[in-house]
UniProtKB/TrEMBL annotation:
EC number: 3.6.4.-
EC primary class: hydrolase
MF annotations from Gene Ontology: 3'-5' DNA helicase activity; ATP binding; DNA binding; hydrolase activity
Keywords: ATP-binding, DNA-binding, Hydrolase, Nucleotide-binding
Gene3D superfamilies attached to this UniProt entry: P-loop containing nucleotide triphosphate hydrolases (3.40.50.300)
Annotated protein name in UniProt: Primosomal protein N
Keyword ATP-binding: yes
GO process terms (BP): DNA recombination; DNA replication initiation; double-strand break repair
Gene: priA_38
Organism: bioreactor metagenome
All residue ranges annotated as the Helicase C-terminal domain in the record: 1-146
Length: 228
């Protein structure tokens, strides 16, 4: 960036450069006062800041916003893109947003800013692929300080879940941050119908979870019903 714009003052705004509140305030102040011309940052910049002279916002590698197990990825991506676009063109000045992506033709890009169209599109997708509010979700989290043990317990739970007739589940999957507070994490996602079938399946899941707990007393896990 500095090679390409050698005549501009460039600042970084991320977890490393803003570890100090003093440094964070300095960066924001200098950019607000036009002492810095280009501000390169993470999603931290998407909301909460007012730059009166900002007229151009660029989002790089936008496809990464959708690279997650969360079915709400499109919804969150639209929210962030709308927040970013709102940073530019304030105080009656023209604003522009450029979205850079590696050939991704996701329809969400063209719907940014059109809230009704976005909502309609996302509701259609959730209905087609059976996600809330059209059914319920149960998340089972298996964790352990030993990575091998985490996968070992998850494999045992997987085999038990496979015994439940008609169960629609996926996993185990490691989240983006596989290790949290010293523990490795694996997720199972279960789709539960909102009818009598769901009630019966839920009872079967409880039996499986109880058996898993009894057979593996040292296993650490928890169930999260309707986590979203």
């Amino acid at each position: 960036m500095r090679e390409r714009f050698s005549d501009k003052v460039i600042e970084r705004f991320d977890a490393d450069t803003t570890a100090s509140k003093t440094e964070e305030k300095r960066i924001i102040k200098e950019f607000s006062q036009n002492k810095a011309n280009i501000l390169v940052g993470t999603q931290m910049l998407s909301k909460g800041f007012h730059f009166s002279d900002l007229t151009l916002v660029c989002l790089l590698q936008a496809e990464s916003l959708f690279a997650t197990q969360d079915f709400r990825a499109s919804e969150r991506a639209v929210q962030m893109m709308n927040q970013l676009s709102g940073r530019a063109g304030r105080e009656n000045k023209p604003g522009k947003m450029i979205i850079q992506t590696s050939g991704d033709k996701n329809e969400v890009y063209s719907l940014t800013g059109e809230y009704r169209d976005v909502c309609s599109k996302l509701i259609e997708e959730r209905k087609e692929f059976l996600y809330p509010p059209f059914l319920r979700i149960i998340r089972i989290v298996v964790k352990d300080r030993d990575r091998k043990e985490t996968y070992n317990y998850a494999d045992k739970l997987y085999k038990l879940l496979c015994l439940i007739k008609g169960l629609d589940f996926s996993g185990p999957f490691a989240p983006v941050n596989e290790k949290l507070r010293g523990e490795f994490i694996l997720n199972f996602w279960i789709k539960l119908p909102k009818d009598n079938r769901g009630i019966a399946i839920k009872k079967s899941i409880k039996k499986v979870v109880d058996k898993f707990s009894n057979d593996n007393p040292k296993a650490q896990f928890f169930c999260d019903v309707d986590p979203f």
